[in-house]
Specification:
With about 350 residues, the protein is mostly helical. The protein contains 15 helices and no strands.
Amino acid sequence: MEKLGKETFVNTNFANAFYFFGFMFLAVYSLNSLSNILTPIAIAILIWFLINAFANQIKRLPFLNPKVGDIIAIPLSLIFIVYSMVEIGSFIASSMLELSSTIAQLDTKVNALIQKLSLISSIDLLTPIQKFFQEFSLSSIINKVIAAFSAIFSNLIQILLYVLFLLIDQRYFKTKLNALFPKQVNRDKAEHVLVSISKGIRTYISITTIISLITGFLTYLICEMFSLQGAVLWGFIAFVLNFIPTIGSIIAVLIPAIFALIQFPEISDVLFLSLALVIVQFVIGNIVYPRLMGNKLNISQFIVILSLVIWGAMWGTIGMFLSVPLMMILLIILSQFDSTKSLAILISGDGSILSSSKSTK
């Protein structure tokens, strides 16, 4: 009987592991295969959260009547965000036309600069860097970032339709929740999960947007001080890339520094510009942002980087932007069930998670 029990235990564990890895494989394969369908939906949901977050701020205005606020908050938020997206799209298009010739000549000019450095230092830098350029072209990397924005704006009508229907449907969410969960305990638990996800994403978007605006503005000021061409564009790129953890900050410094190499005759100007941009990114990313966010973004840094790589591999640049919000949703959902709580602890930054028992109160 003891031997039979051990065999059953081993078989059960093996079956659970097999089903888990099989499910993960199917999930990753499906997410990757359906990226063209799922990315506009994911962006629409993120914009929907942003509209509701902005609407909540409008409702809190002291001079606004609460009843009037309930009526106009969502439409005003929708108009503001749609207008902002259209303006951003036209700004990116005009900026890219202005800098298109520079981008086309980027790799050639960088090669010429490396040849000069090789002659000055008497070290052959060209051969190893040419090997690197065979794998990674600077102009192609920049064009990929631009292509990601172009993909978003090319699907703008589709995304806005999704957002519109989400806003129409959200007034029935409470009724649907009551129908889905007739028992009060289950309903309270589901409401707690949804509220936690909503608050978490709103907090993340609000604080990250404020920090990104500060980063973008300071980047613009520094580039303008050094008279770097396209200062407004570099500020905007720094603002957008700040939503991508770690890698975004590196690229936000690297791109204007590379253009400075082409534009400035003196290497010292390039070094001072790069140093100023690095200081801005370091201070805001490592001092200001953690103080504002506190323990609200309780996700392991290793998991953040890992999810960045995984979502980036599946959904490209758009996946990198969405990686942190998606991990926040996953962490909140996993923390609500005893069977998945251990996974939530592994994903969390310090091991502290909301217990499912709290959600039922």
